[in-house]
Amino acid sequence: MAEREQVRDAQTVYEGPIFSVEKQAVTLFNGKTSQRDIVHHVPAIAVMAFPDEDHMLLEKQYRATIGDFILEIPAGKLDARDFNEPEHAVIRELNEELRVSAGHIQRVTGFYETVGFSDAYMHLYIARDLQPIPVANQLPRDLGESLDIESVSFDALKRLFEAGEINDQKTLTAFLYWSYLRG
């Protein structure tokens, strides 16, 4: 039977605006000790934005963490404005990144992104009935955020999936859920 570890000591070794790193000394089920380095990350949202039933809006943007461009669904972290109401972050990210509002927003699921070292949790939503936001009502994008918006058909995304070219976890999850919806 699986057993819980016991935290003997915990110390924050880095504190930043988006995440912190905690070093833990733990006692294992067999009495031995070990160290855990844990990244505590603020929760986030991701959005499957459908302009119609056969297309989803994706972003192509440069990600410093991988040193390359990636095709992904829009996403963003929760902050003080919407920490307890993730749907508010969905509305904000649709505006900031895609420049649209949604007539219908629905939560699909949530998942831990990288449980091997982080407690990062992401809420996945669907947005439908999209309408362009007038320029005067558009929110500013995050500093340094540069992206291209692409409307991708289900068949095109399926080809990218089959070729192993979707390598972003939230986008893989979104594609698999979209496949499930299509039967």
UniProtKB/TrEMBL annotation:
Name under which the protein is recorded: NUDIX hydrolase
Q: Give the organism the record lists.
A: Leuconostoc holzapfelii
Q: Which residues form the Nudix hydrolase domain?
A: 39-174
Q: Signal peptide: which range, if any?
A: none
Give an example GO biological process.
nucleoside phosphate metabolic process
The lineage, from the top, is: Bacteria, Bacillati, Bacillota, Bacilli, Lactobacillales
Pfam families according to UniProt: NUDIX (PF00293)
Instruction: Show the GO MF annotations.
Output: hydrolase activity
Q: Which UniProt keywords apply?
A: Hydrolase
Q: Which InterPro entries match?
A: NUDIX_hydrolase-like_dom_sf, NUDIX_hydrolase_dom
Q: Which PANTHER family match?
A: NUDIX HYDROLASE DOMAIN-CONTAINING PROTEIN, UDP/ADP-SUGAR PYROPHOSPHATASE
